[in-house]
Amino acid sequence: MKLHQFALAAALAVATLGSAQAGIYTYTGNLATHDYIGDAPSRIVAHFEFDFENSPGAEYHMYEFKSWDVSYGSIHLSSAAGNGLMNSFTFDAAMNITGWFFNASDTAEPWLYNENLQSLSENFLGHAPNEASDIALLQNPLRSAAVYGNQGTWTLAPAVPEPATYLMLGAGLAAVGFASRKRRAQAA
């Protein structure tokens, strides 16, 4: 019987570790004030999912991405498409983004861009906190959409529960049921 209890405890521990998942940070830039790309001014919208638990540089507050995507009007760049991303993020103790720079490009080398989207928190440049500049660029001919001196917004969507979360719940309910049945059997 001890082996059965140990196996159940091990299964619960594995389910608990497997259910850890970070939320998705969403950046929404301000409406572009000068737009020569699309028909109507748009906003840079970006989604970043960081791998806080498994990043080798986590002790130095450097986190890898599980996935990312950046869009502006008809331009869509993402990790799934193999696009390039230069980035730097700073976090507070609650893991809220307090400073940022990201530059997404349709090439692996963003300085050789054809399509290029970037957002910069001027925290990195010593300006007032959270002043931001958003720029969208197309090459040939060089066209741009830009927002300067305005703050974008960040939101954090909670993670969708993984199957391991439900497995852990089911195993916990089964353990409670098993203990209740065992007590009833001993009382009789």
TrEMBL record:
Keywords: Signal. Residues 159-184 form the Ice-binding protein C-terminal domain. InterPro entries: Ice-binding_C (IPR013424). Residues 1-22 form the signal peptide. Pfam families: PEP-CTERM (PF07589). NCBIfam families: PEP_CTERM. This is PEP-CTERM sorting domain-containing protein. It comes from Pseudoduganella albidiflava.
